[in-house]
Predict the structure.
Amino acid sequence: MIFSDPPYFLSNGGTQMKDVWHLPAIARWEKSCGKHPTQKPLALLTRIILSSTRKGAWILDPFTGSSTTGIAANLVNRKFLGIDREEDFLTISRNRKLEIEDTHILDTYKKKLGGFDTKNQLELFLAKEPEIEYERSLNFDSK
Ligand SMILES: C[S@@+](CC[C@H](N)C(=O)[O-])C[C@H]1O[C@@H](n2cnc3c(N)ncnc32)[C@H](O)[C@@H]1O
């Protein structure tokens, strides 16, 4: 994972980040494709992703459940790979992914995400976020 400076609106305005985050609980629309017993709020995963990755990053969740991490990743222009041993959870994950391929639903979900100061704060940030060139190979040469 590549860590970068978190977006200003997630960094507590330049002062030390608070260790308790106040975010909305899961709303009904987040369960539109079915329920997972430990599903997390999209606002929480979005905040974690924006705090620790840059645009275009790959994110892996090897215990993906209903793939809230993946949906959050895709909502903020990151790529995602999820793995789970339960087919039912993968079906929910696939349906959630298909749902946000509809750009109207994608935009609606971005607007519904809680945890931002204003309704369009996330949209404005994503529009300005720079494109990053990622290394495509690892070099283990010790010289
Ligand atoms: C606690 S849930 C976490 C779901 C999701 N990452 C989240 O944060 O909401 C753990 C998931 O891991 C899956 N799981 C457990 N053992 C696994 C294994 N050996 N291989 C793949 N998936 C596994 C379960 O089916 C379950 O959906």
In short: The chain has a mean pLDDT of 89. Residues 23 and 115 are 5 Å apart (CA to CA). Residues 87-100 form the longest helix (14 residues). The domain at 39-128 is CATH 3.40.50.150 (Rossmann fold).
